[in-house]
Amino acid sequence: MNALAARRRHPAAIFLLLLLGLILTGGAYAALAPKPAIAAEASAGQVKEGQELFKTNCATCHGANALGTNVGPNLAGVGAAAVDFQMGTGRMPMAEPGVQAPRGKEVQFSEEQIAAIGAFVASLAPGPAVPAEEYTTGAGGDPGKGGEIFRTNCSMCHNSAGAGGALTRGKYAPKLTGVEGKHIYEALLTGPQSMPVFNDDNISPESKNDLIAYLKAMEAEGNPGGMALGSLGPVPEGLVAWVFGLGVLVGAAYWLGQKGA
């Protein structure tokens, strides 16, 4: 009996039990963990084309090897998603140095050229990839869940209506109307300017699609209640009430006084 008990307590049995538990846990995580939404991988030819385009158009600020200068930052590790966001929204190349790159009126490169430059930058070091289209249109997403995510994580900077807002040191959170779903996803992935990063572990691809669905639904609804006043909340609303409301009351009081006289 004592010998049987001793065999049951053998250290090797405990080690094997722990090893089996680790294997099962790792296998379950690999099977159930959220998968990143990644588009197709780049070819060697695309990387080479992107390198030539980069040297011609971007190296002045970021250096020939994209490792940065005193004008532009190091791009190793930013990933193709950051390139697609910055160049696809016309923020890059910047017209002039400033505290923040504004959204451009026109995109200066074709989608193929942007993809090639992104492939070159992605080849320097691992970074966020351009997301797959199935998660960037809002199609099939739940606007209700997306609204909860937006109000929890985004509204304090971008305003509850996505109208944007001022930040410190001359920076600002841009308005989110008229922005492609892909670029919203990429901004979440890469955290441009003062924005924090929300990778696919923080907010899953499905939840990002819900958030995009919410923003698109809000944009489509417009302002059924009347003038939006910039969607900036109680400050402009109070200003309108004081200036116009009080003006009407003063005018009415003056008219009644003149009529009585």
Automatic annotation (TrEMBL):
Top EC group: translocase
Bilayer topology annotation: Multi-pass membrane protein
Reaction(s) catalysed by this chain's protein: a quinol + 2 Fe(III)-[cytochrome c](out) = a quinone + 2 Fe(II)-[cytochrome c](out) + 2 H(+)(out)
Keyword annotations of the record: Cell membrane, Electron transport, Heme, Iron, Membrane, Metal-binding, Repeat, Respiratory chain, Translocase, Transmembrane, Transmembrane helix, Transport
GO (cellular component) term, any one: plasma membrane
Keyword 4Fe-4S in record: no
Cytochrome c domain ranges (all copies): 45-219
PANTHER family per UniProt: CBB3-TYPE CYTOCHROME C OXIDASE SUBUNIT FIXP, CYTOCHROME BC1 COMPLEX CYTOCHROME C SUBUNIT
PTM annotation, UniProt: Binds 2 heme c groups covalently per subunit.
Record-listed heme c 1 binding positions: C58, C61, H62
Name of protein: Cytochrome bc1 complex cytochrome c subunit
Binding site for heme c 2: C154, C157, H158
MF GO annotations: heme binding; iron ion binding; quinol-cytochrome-c reductase activity
E.C. number: 7.1.1.8
Chain ranges passing through the membrane: 239-257
Compartmental location: Cell membrane
UniProt subunit comment: The cytochrome bc1 complex is composed of a cytochrome b (QcrB), the Rieske iron-sulfur protein (QcrA) and a diheme cytochrome c (QcrC) subunit.
InterPro entries, per the entry: bc1_cytC-su (IPR009152), Cyt_c-like_dom (IPR009056), Cyt_c-like_dom_sf (IPR036909), Cytochrome_c_Oxidase_Subunit (IPR050597)
